[in-house]
Design goal:
two-stranded parallel sheet; elongated; 2 domains; mainly beta; 46% strand
Amino acid sequence: MRKVTLLFAVISALSASAAQPNDSLDGRYYRLFAPLTFYHNVADKTLALNSESAGKDRVADEVDAALLKVYLKRPDLVRTTETDLEETGSIREDLYQPIINEVEFVNKVDTVPLVDAPEDIPDTVMVQKPKFWTYKGDGFLQFMQNYVSGNWYKGGESNYSMVGALTAEANYDNKNKWKWDNKLELKLGFLRSRTDSLHKFKSNEDLIRLTSKLGLEAAKNWYYTLQLQAYTQFTQGYKSNDPKIYSDFFSPLNINLGLGMDYKVESKNQKLTGTINFSPIAVNYRYVGRVDLGPSYGLDPGKHSMFEFGPNMTADLVWKFNDVVTWKTRFYAFTSFKRAEIEWENTFELRVSKYITANLFLFPRFDDASLYDDDLGYWQFKEYSSLGFAYTF
């Protein structure tokens, strides 16, 4: 509506001079197209009782009439006044005059000869040493409590258990095909049962394991690898109400050394990571410090150790389904063509918060060098679930 009112005023002013085209080029029409300004002479000319200038300048009268029409009908279109323009100032003509600076010399200085830099001063070069070693790890301390009343219709027993674990890694990569990965796993758990009158506490989870791999890159994600695995336990192992020791520190101690290929698993979305190792040439050494436990671990009676040769396979993977659920799995297989040993460890981690997690651990194991069980044969199983604190570094 504002534009329409102003347009009608402009048309009425220009139509009056349409018969004389040259008048439309008069510079005084600019007031109709510039931002609308309230000019004093328009009101003065209209309100004057006897204006001497009225009718003498047709172009000025037409422009004033158009502006007056807008002032009366749409005063809200006015942006400024003639007084404001005068206070702003006029065009400075002195700016077009050339600026002349006269320079006077105080003292005349002789020309200084150029001096070459000494050749014996070397340039400073800063070299940042690459970061070859990376470190990471995680740990948890979790608890489980189970209560069963004495008259529970299905039987059972109350117990308390605790398990703690620490995993630390130190990995070397020289950025030029060579890498050396080292991982130490420590795990220890205790169980207290009311029905066990011989042992106040006994271990239900016990592991010391070192894995070290030296690799030379053969192709993308493939490495020629020499792998060492060694594992034993911290404490003596018992069964409920049984004084016999079934395992102990260095009873047994297993050391496996294999030569083969290592494949680095890494999905595009980084959800699945880990390594798979194939060692067609491997030697397995088993040592049992308690000679009476030798037959339970495949040794001849009276022997402390044995050597075996055969292929070996190890897979160590982490599958992160989302920010809450993670699956960590380790698969190990070795055969000497006389016996076979297979282990498959599975840990399902449910992260409740940054420092609280719940774990489900499943561990089936096959070893035909162990004593035969009438129900399970050479198969062995371990399972537990727990809730507690966890930390990653």
